[in-house]
Amino acid sequence: MKRSFGRNREGLPKVMRSGIPTLDLLFQGGYPMGSLCLIEEDPRNNDALNISRCFLGEGCVSDEKLFIYGENLTENLIPDIRRIGDGEHKSSSVQWRYETFSNTSLISEPYCIDLASTASNQRNAVFGVLSPSIDDSYKNLWNTIRQDILSHENANAGRVLILSMLGSSWPKLSYSDIYQFLNSLKTLLRTINGVCMITMPTNTLNANLLNLVYSSCDIILSCESVEGKKSSMLRIKKAPRVLGNINYETIPLRIRDDKCTIAIEQLTAKKHKLHQENA
């Protein structure tokens, strides 16, 4: 392949949209190409999975190749979109929906990812069912992902999703294998203008393994349920380097459900205080 890590006219890394417009606003357009993004799972909610599904749905709209890996996979992982009429949520504007500013989008009118639906056209999706308990599982996973991507080298930018990595059935003794896998994956992503999202039950990992994972990832998002609340809190533990030294962990963010879509909204100081008092 002759692809390289592309840059736009302003000299900033190109980005891949997340499928959640309000999150892209925070990240100045989306996930930078070549990024490894970790979504920390909370067993009390499906937010990590929903963020991942938005990532896939946006890739489907943009005609990008999707490489999806996990132990239990179904085709309903990839959601469809819902077109938005002129009168629907007009006041929300680009705060939660996508306008027609994407050169790669196949849709010429405003839309949002509809998590209650399933994409009918999944021709660009590659599914890989994993058996992580076997010997050399990380080497096998790396070979599978690498071969899948290289066999589709003429496709548009690729999106890789690994669901529940380091779950209960995954081997965790060989830190060197895990480190080598994650860093080899990052190198591959930079050659194809791709982004990889990994969901992970990090609450089950020991401190040493967790530090290894954190240091290997470019972006870390944590979805945390709040007792007595329908919405969850989102913590940006590690933001893309291009955003500078902003401490996103101090910014209170809420994951809000909105008619089978999700939005990330920043809580005002007053709302955040009330939220803390009522939690």
From TrEMBL:
Principal subcellular localization: cytoplasm
Identify the pathway: tRNA modification; 5-methoxycarbonylmethyl-2-thiouridine-tRNA biosynthesis
* Family annotation (InterPro entries): Elongator_complex_protein_4, P-loop_NTPase
Going by the UniProt record, its keywords in alphabetical order are: Cytoplasm, Nucleus, tRNA processing
Name a biological process GO annotation.
tRNA wobble uridine modification
Q: Which cellular components does GO assign to this protein?
A: cytoplasm; elongator holoenzyme complex; transcription elongation factor complex
Cellular localisation: Cytoplasm; Nucleus
Q: Which family does it belong to?
A: Belongs to the ELP4 family.
Put simply, this protein is called: Elongator complex protein 4
